[in-house]
Design a protein that fits this description.
This protein is mostly helical. The chain has two domains: 151 residues, Helix Hairpins, CATH 1.10.287; 58 residues, no CATH class. Helices cover 78% and strands 5% of the residues. It contains four helices and four strands. A four-stranded mixed sheet has the order 2-1-4-3. The chain binds zinc ion. Zinc ion binds next to loops.
Length: 237
């Protein structure tokens, strides 16, 4: 009977370990997704900033073209000034030149403003892109680590499954049935330790008499509260 208890304890330990590995494996893809989403969000943010800069650059080019056209018009008007004979016409042309000059000066101001803004945006974007490259490297490293861990966990799980099957062959069918039954009722845990009269499964006290018996016997005893198979574990050693 002692051997059976030892095997059941071992079986429970393997199954619990497999459960922990399962939980980890389930969680790793979630971690991976979070990392990916964080990185993508940052890339989107950098992309928005780049688009914003491109739009300012385009506006600056438009204003440049506008300024060139304005200067051309002004130049032509000034040339025409020499051909004008009548005073009234001359006066109105001077007025026209004044308007053109004002317009060009405002466009110039706008170009200067846009140049300033562009410079500022370019600097910010450069920093953002450098940060993105660092983040990309980190993200790829993390991803690789997670992938490696997934593979290693898969190997561990395989080992657990093999060990479990081997152990099961050594346990009588009747005992195994009891184990499975208790496991089903006990949320996946059938065998638990008891130390200082407290059951690890339900955290309740077992009667002192039972606790004494547990330290001596090799029989399969169950917890009066949670019905799991219990064994005495000496935690002083
Ligand atoms: Zn219990």
């Amino acid at each position: 009977m002692r051997k059976q208890l030892v095997r059941l304890i071992e079986l429970q330990k393997i199954e619990s370990a497999a459960g922990r590995i399962h939980a980890k494996r389930k969680n790793l893809p979630v971690q991976m997704k979070i990392l990916e989403e964080e990185f993508n969000l940052f890339c989107e943010f950098a992309e928005t900033q780049r688009e914003q800069m491109e739009s300012v650059r385009k506006r600056r080019q438009e204003k440049d073209t506008q300024l060139q056209a304005g200067q051309e018009t002004l130049k032509r008007t000034r040339e025409r000034l020499f051909e004008v004979k009548k005073n009234k016409e001359y006066q109105s042309m001077l007025k026209e030149i004044e308007i053109f000059e004002g317009k060009n000066s405002r466009t110039e101001d706008e170009v200067i403003f846009l140049l300033d803004e562009l410079e500022h945006l370019e600097t910010a974007l450069k920093a953002k892109e450098e940060e993105r490259d660092i983040k990309r490297r980190r993200y790829e490293e993390e991803r690789k680590k997670i992938e490696e861990e997934m593979n290693s966990l898969a190997g561990e799980l395989d080992a657990c499954v093999r060990k479990r099957e081997e152990l099961k062959k050594e346990i009588p069918a009747e005992v195994l049935r009891k184990y499975e039954l208790i496991k089903g009722a006990g949320r996946g845990v059938a065998v638990v330790a008891v130390w200082k009269e407290v059951c690890d499964g339900c955290h309740m006290s077992v009667p002192p008499q039972l606790y004494n018996e547990l330290q001596k016997t090799t029989a399969l005893i169950t917890c009066p509260n949670c019905n799991r198979i219990i064994y005495w574990e000496n935690r002083n050693i």
